Amino acid sequence: MPKHIARLAAGTVVALSLLTACSGGTGGTAETPAPGNPSPSSPDNSSSNGVPKVPAPLPTEKLLADPCSALGDDANAVGLASPGKLNDITPRGCDWQSSDPDLKANGVTLAPVPQNKNGLADTYATKSRQAYFEPTQISGYPAVFTAGHDSRKNGVCDLVIGVTDQLTVVIVDSISKGKNLDNPCEPLTKIGAAMINHLKTAS
């Protein structure tokens, strides 16, 4: 197993275990701009408990059946080599490597989390147990940078995006070299925007 995939697998398992507790790449990824313009501001469309609502549910049938379909050809636009490779983590996810030959050690794992029947509400329910919890928006969709262990200084960042009010997608990157080593969360905004764009247009 490639080193970056091993790191991502460990990190994703931890992230998913925390995110589902309450439920009933990538230096190369930033070399080329991705579609969409992620906004750092917090969402305004919130429910009564403060959890942001999804503005319009995205189609997720293909995503759940095949997580590697989340990006399609848009993977190339964010510096990821396609196709991705399905992994054996539960729930199933997809792994991509950087398309830059010099940055093959960098990678991304993306996984929908069907265990979270309440979507981002389940993520917000774990807020007090997270090492960091930073709400944001990705192409108008509510999201949170969050993890139970803060590994950002080691090139690892976790992003949770609400694609419907009942389903979230976790994206984790592992950067070993390149300009995003000190800011591993930045590539995730581009990858998240690419995913949202692809889900909208591929439906």
TrEMBL record:
This is DUF3558 domain-containing protein. The keyword Signal applies. InterPro entries: DUF3558 (IPR024520). Residues 42-52 have a biased composition (Low complexity). Residues 25-61 are annotated as: Disordered. Keywords: Signal. It holds the Pfam family DUF3558. Residues 1-23 form the signal peptide.
